[in-house]
Amino acid sequence: MATQVTAKVSADATARRGVSFLQIAIALQTLTIFLQAVSSGLLLTSSYGETLHSAGARVMYGASMLYVLAAVLAWKPGGGSPRPVRHASGFLALASVQVVLGIAHVPSVHLPLGVLMFGLSVLALARRQGRTY
Fold this sequence. Notes:
Blueprint: H1 2-45, H2 49-78, H3 83-103, H4 107-129
């Protein structure tokens, strides 16, 4: 009986830690996208803006990959819904398109997609605040 209680408490602690890591990953992703918006303004007004925006794109893409990893880790141990994994994977796909459009210099799609990604990331973060699974 004591073993079952200990196992349940341990599983609950692991699930909370996974959700916490997921929230941190989404927050990091949201922050990096916001910083990309700031660096895009610098891209238009300063000589070092292009370097900063290019480096930020790599960091943002890495944050998107971290979001996928966190979603998988939160899903697997607790046996929760795979929905966060699908959301994170979809976001990584959007980030991939965003990088391709940025390299191809297609601002007419690159900029609106960036705004959409920021909005979706804020929405994902807001939805995560009240959930524990």
